[in-house]
TrEMBL record:
Entry protein name: tRNA N6-adenosine threonylcarbamoyltransferase
Origin species: Vagococcus vulneris
Domain Gcp-like: 24-309
Family: Belongs to the KAE1 / TsaD family.
Cross-referenced HAMAP family: TsaD
GO molecular function, one term: iron ion binding
Length: 334
């Protein structure tokens, strides 16, 4: 398996990539639909599917062209089959199946979350055992990996995902969707003056909870509105971010200690958070300097097909192929 064409369409990005030997990106085309969803304050599934239909063929052509690869050079087609929006996933899956069938190529089904972890492999080789902190709009998980393609979820959110909390709080602050990046930028201009709770931080497990923080935030804003008090937006952002980052960092570092890992990977859309990147790196350097910390570059933290190609390469190596009856699995877990 030398050259893989990879397709990602699980949410609001249509993306197609060509990956060489699992670790080199020859092309990675990402067509974002965010502008279309902004006015609704979130991703509208029907709108997402429609956009994927419009974008997918062009993205495939562009990925092959900019990689300067001929269809006959390809060895396989990797595609996200879950988790995600069913209609959105089906567009990518149908495109992948059709392309694989027409060109007599094997079809490699890939879990979107495995893809997020494998984005780290474009930065440096994985060193097992490793821990991955997966933080996105739909997931917050600590995943232990003792070898390639083997995932054990040792902790996860009991309610909202970290990215979801950012987006919901952003809405209350009047920011546009998705608001993680903007809150992150504001947080750097403010200070943690409101001291929100750090849920489950001291508990002896690796689970998370962000809905209490979200409620505390909303209550503070509503009470201030009723009393006619002014809150300082950058301090609100900083206080919220400090709470999220504190909890994520504390639990992740403890998981790395308990599981005696050699590497920590931070992945998913929220891994783009500057506050989180800086805090985890500095605490790990102090507490566990022997553990390698790998964070993908910003463009590979959000949804993209390159990461699907990287994870697909490992699946193919393990002989995990699928027939043309491959179906979308919206609730797929690792
Ligand atoms: O992985 P992703 O692109 O899509 C999913 O699979 O969910 O993650 C999107 C999430 C959104 O909730 C967005 O607000 C959040 O990642 N996000 C951030 C930042 N950049 C994106 N959250 C915090 N800080 C950021 N800099
Ligand atoms: Zn994602």
């Amino acid at each position: 398996m030398h050259l893989i064409l990879a397709i990602e369409s699980s949410c609001d990005e249509t993306s197609v990539a060509v990956i060489k030997d699992g670790v080199t990106i020859l092309s990675n085309i990402v067509a974002s639909q965010i502008e279309s969803h902004k006015r609704f304050g979130g991703v509208v599934p029907e709108v997402a599917s429609r956009h994927h239909v419009e974008q997918i063929i062009g993205c495939m052509e562009e990925a092959l062209e900019s990689a300067d690869v001929d269809v006959s050079d390809l060895d396989g087609v990797a595609v996200t089959y879950g988790p995600g929006l069913v209609g959105a996933l089906l567009i990518g899956i149908t495109a992948a199946k059709t392309f694989a069938w027409a060109n007599n190529l094997p079809l490699i089904p890939v879990n979107h979350m495995a893809g997020h972890i494998y984005a780290a492999r474009f930065v440096e080789e994985m060193t097992f055992p490793l821990m991955a902190l997966l933080v996105s709009g739909g997931h917050t998980e600590l995943v232990y990996m003792k070898e390639h393609g083997h995932y054990e979820i040792i902790g996860e959110t009991r309610d909202d995902a970290a990215g979801e909390a950012y987006d919901k709080v952003g809405r209350v602050m009047g920011l546009s969707y998705p608001s993680g990046k903007e809150i992150d930028e504001m947080a750097h201009l403010g200070a943690d003056t409101y001291h929100f709770p750090r849920a489950m931080m001291k508990e002896d497990n690796f689970d998370f909870s962000f809905s209490g923080l979200k409620s505390a935030f909303i209550n503070l804003v509503h009470n201030a509105e009723q009393r006619g008090e002014e809150l300082i937006p950058v301090d609100l952002a900083a206080s919220f971010q400090h709470s999220v980052v504190d909890v994520l960092t504390t639990k992740t570092v403890r998981a790395c200690k308990d599981y005696r890992v050699n590497q920590l990977i931070i992945a998913g859309g929220v891994a783009a958070n500057q506050g989180l990147r800086e805090k985890i790196k500095s605490v790990m350097a102090d507490d566990l300097p022997q553990v390698k910390v790998t964070v993908p570059p910003l463009n590979l933290c959000g949804d993209n097909a390159a990461m699907i190609g990287a994870a697909g390469f490992i699946e193919a190596k393990k002989g995990h192929f699928s027939g043309l009856d491959l179906n979308a699995k919206p609730g797929l877990s690792l």
